[in-house]
Design brief:
The protein contains 4 helices and no strands. The protein is an all-alpha fold and 81 residues long. The protein has one domain. The relative contact order is 0.06. The mean pLDDT is 81.
């Protein structure tokens, strides 16, 4: 093989179990934000992103046992103390 001639080692790809969660997150971002994104200035984009992140962090999700990311972060901080 050409890989052996060039001293490359073949390593099979590792597919992680969480890859589906990441893909779903990207799809949700696309549907909730990027499809509706309209901006003319950089400051307008920043304003829209802050608004989206505020809304996103307060949406309950199944992955976190039906609590919002902000509440989960608060629980984690309480456990760390």
């Amino acid at each position: 093989m050409i890989c052996a001639l060039l001293y490359f080692q073949y390593k099979p790809l590792i597919i992680y179990a969480d890859n589906g969660k990441v893909e779903r997150s990207h799809r949700n971002d696309q549907n909730r934000f990027y499809n509706y994104l309209k901006f003319y200035f950089y400051n307008d984009l920043i304003k829209q992103m802050k608004s989206y992140l505020n809304r996103f962090n307060n949406i309950v999700v199944q992955v976190l046992d039906w609590i919002s990311p902000l509440k989960k972060q608060g629980q984690k901080k309480q456990c760390d103390k």
